[in-house]
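Example with several molecule types.
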Amino acid sequence: MHVTEQICQELSDLEIVRKSLRDVEYFACLYNRYEPKLLRYIKRISYSTREESEDILQEAFIKIWRNLHDFDQDLKLSSWIYRIVHNETVSFWRKKTSYGKNQKVAMPDDLFDGEDHFFGEENAEDSNTRKIHEVLQKLPIKYREVLVLKFLEMMSYEEISDVLKIPEGTVATRINRAKKAFIQEGGKSAFSWS
Amino acid sequence: MDNSKKIIDKIKFENIQPIPRWKFLLKNGAVWTAFLLAVVLGALAFSVVLFSIQQSEFDLLSHMSHSRLEFLLGLLPFFWILTLVVFLVLAIFSVQYSRKGYKFTVTRLVAISAALSILLGTVFFIAGGGEKLENAFAVNVEVYQSLQEKKVRIWTNPEEGFLSGTIVNTDSNNSLQLKDFEEKTWEIRYQDAFISPRVLLEPGEKIKLVGKLTGQQSFQVEEIRPWGGRENRLQRGKGRQE
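Resulting structure tokens for the full complex:
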């Protein structure tokens, strides 16, 4: 059965999961619903190209499909999906950077495609956006990921805790340290936090 | 072709199936079973720690002329403390593998596991589980030095002022003959000694003595204590009935 976009829009995340287990075609609804956000997230933490991001996302969604029965309904489905995508992305990023210790991953040209909200500032100037990403890119991934989840993906501490599988207290500590590292790297006056 | 179509085609083409729910339930069940097992075993270890502390006579430290630290270390049940720590670590490790394990900090996990083991261990100890487990180890594990053996070692130390054994016979002028646990016979004088009310001073009774060595086979006593334990209490009951 072909599932139209209109049918997808009427379904909640949980309904899609239940229907997908009966008819795999519904799984496309889930993919289409999360694809833009997740592609952007993958690029933000791994600086992968569009093709690489799509490959990562495809692999992640195959994992999501295989583990669909493991979804804990106490969590938000989005947190669980982000968790799997995050793990897949970090794994890709580690492979990509493991060829040489000092190797830097180039910032792809299409990084700024689509809407972006940086640190509470909507429609920021492109130069500012680029500057933020240049600083983020220099940070260790454990700092980069919390800053991206908190300030770019606009997640709560609880959601970040569920994505990264760390206690909420650790999320708070890590965000504070990441902010300090960001300011140190980018210059104190460059950005403001909101 | 859009990406969602590609994924659906791949799932269909490679016939990729979701992992059955029972496998996840089994994994989660195994993790929590491991946690419970670790907590219960930790609790048993703690009950033996309590039992050995109860059996230890820390007041003897004041009688020691030297090597007090060595003596104190000898009294501590390291084997059981180590067992408790190992099971605590296993309990923490298993919770971290559970679905919600990441929500807890290591400190909180240590606190929860330790609290459960201590609580349950105290219940085991009160119910006599610690003593039974200790005895079972003493009987079945050859390399294990039981509390009883440790006790004998501590109380077979006449140079330090500690002697123990079975009364062979007693006479009227405050002296008795004692056979220690190494089958050596001693002449014991106990004039002016403090005698525990639980001691009957009868042949066949096991006792502990605090005092000083006065000769090759003679010992002047300052304090007489019962050997302690169930056997002694039973013996005392029999003695009274007779």
